[in-house]
Write a sequence for this structure.
């Protein structure tokens, strides 16, 4: 995993995104299904835990939970959010381990310690950062026990408006646009032990002209953080062509009253570990 996010300060965008999208709700629902299907609930690993939305909610099902997050600013928020949760829930710190680390470092330092260890591994919108997706997923599977499950959530390659989506992903994540084709073929990479289904999420935004005006006039407007986060880190450097593409994209999703409802599709992959013994579904 590359060090995207180190020192990143636009974390208010995540809070804004949570208010205007049902993505987190649907993600929690999918993770809850995966948890309920597990034979054991002893250990959980979250790869790229971000601010802890997935991690904190899921950790309560397990006796031990580990989260890794490479972004320094995001790790600070993860730490604070986890401390608040532990205090409110009366849980002990020894139940939870937080590490400011990228996946490659974590794997190399813990390859023996955590081999065959975890009941559930979650990788939620973090798969984009891997150069060799098949190799890294295979590494993750080594950390699963025989009855464990790896859950991956990512944007699907079946999305419409791919030209815009590719530009968006490239600007935000600083990854090659060809990556979308790679992570949309995960099921083909693991045909014998991978299931996939698609969920739809909805994102509601105000009129683009109003968002654009807020960005220019009010430095701390929530839409300012969102525009910088979602459409380019430095929105004022967006080219005229890219801005036109953004407007055209939003116009396709216009609602009455000038708001926009953007429906996006996400793939949910559940991958199990193939062993010499028959594995449990």
């Amino acid at each position: 995993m590359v060090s995207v996010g180190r020192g990143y300060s636009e974390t208010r965008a995540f809070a804004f995104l949570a208010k205007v999208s049902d993505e987190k709700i649907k993600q929690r629902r999918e993770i809850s299904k995966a948890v309920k299907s597990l034979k054991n609930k002893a250990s959980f690993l979250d790869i790229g835990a971000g601010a802890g939305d997935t991690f904190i909610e899921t950790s309560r099902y397990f006796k031990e939970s580990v989260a890794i997050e490479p972004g320094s600013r995001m790790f600070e928020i993860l730490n604070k959010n986890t401390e608040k949760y532990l205090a409110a829930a009366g849980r002990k710190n020894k139940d939870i381990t937080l590490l400011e680390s990228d996946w490659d470092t974590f794997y190399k330092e813990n390859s023996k310690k955590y081999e065959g260890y975890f009941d559930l591994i979650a990788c939620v919108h973090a798969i984009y950062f891997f150069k060799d997706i098949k190799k890294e997923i295979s590494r993750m599977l080594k950390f699963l026990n025989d009855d464990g499950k790896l859950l991956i959530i990512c944007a699907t390659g079946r999305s419409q408006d791919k030209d815009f989506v590719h530009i968006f992903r490239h600007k935000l994540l600083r990854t090659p646009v060809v990556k979308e084709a790679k992570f949309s073929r995960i099921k083909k990479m693991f045909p014998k032990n991978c299931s996939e289904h698609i969920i739809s999420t909805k994102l509601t935004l105000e009129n683009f002209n109003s968002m654009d005006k807020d960005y220019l006039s009010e430095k701390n407007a929530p839409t300012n953080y969102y525009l910088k986060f979602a459409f380019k880190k430095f929105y004022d450097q967006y080219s005229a062509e890219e801005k036109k593409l953004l407007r055209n994209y939003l116009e396709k999703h216009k609602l009455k009253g000038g708001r926009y409802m953007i429906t996006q599709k996400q793939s949910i992959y559940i991958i199990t570990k193939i062993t010499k013994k028959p594995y449990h579904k």
